[in-house]
Write a structure and sequence with these properties.
By secondary structure, the chain is mainly β. It contains 1 helix and 9 strands; from the N terminus they run αβββββββββ. The strands form 2 sheets. Strands 1, 4, 6, 8 and 9 form a 5-stranded mixed β-sheet that branches. A 4-stranded antiparallel β-sheet has the order 3-2-5-7, with no helix packed on it. The chain is elongated.
Length: 126
């Protein structure tokens, strides 16, 4: 075998090796989808009265996964969640009843789902 034949054979073998390699596939755990944000207000029937420090929970209706937030001084909350459909709940106290709650909310990637508001009646203590 001449040197040029040897060089050509090496080139062919290395070319075949490069084209038969398989790409690296990530087999680690699947990353959750990016998702979006659910936002709203928690107020009493008097719209000027916000309820602060209330726990608001978004529950994925399929998996049962829970995502929590606490309302701010204005009664507002935001919860970042993966793509899915969520039931949203708010913490009530002994003398309170829920008058209005948001419907189930479907979140897509990049969504901002605002106005998921709650209205609570506060009964006077007896």
């Amino acid at each position: 075998m001449r040197l040029s034949d040897f060089a050509l054979a090496c080139f062919v073998v290395s070319s075949i090796a490069c084209h038969t390699e398989r790409p690296i596939i990530n087999t680690g755990p699947k990353q959750p989808s990016v998702g979006g944000t659910i936002a709203g207000m928690v107020k009493t029937e008097d719209p000027s009265v916000a309820l602060l420090s209330r726990k608001v929970t978004a529950i994925d209706v399929r998996s049962g996964s829970r995502f929590d937030a606490t309302t701010g001084t204005n009664g507002g909350y935001t919860i970042q969640v993966p793509v899915g459909t969520y039931r949203i709940e708010v913490e009530l106290r002994g003398n309170e009843t829920l008058v209005k709650r948001p419907a189930e909310t479907h979140v897509n990637n990049g969504d901002l789902d605002p106005a998921r508001d709650f209205v609570i009646t506060v009964k006077p203590a007896s």
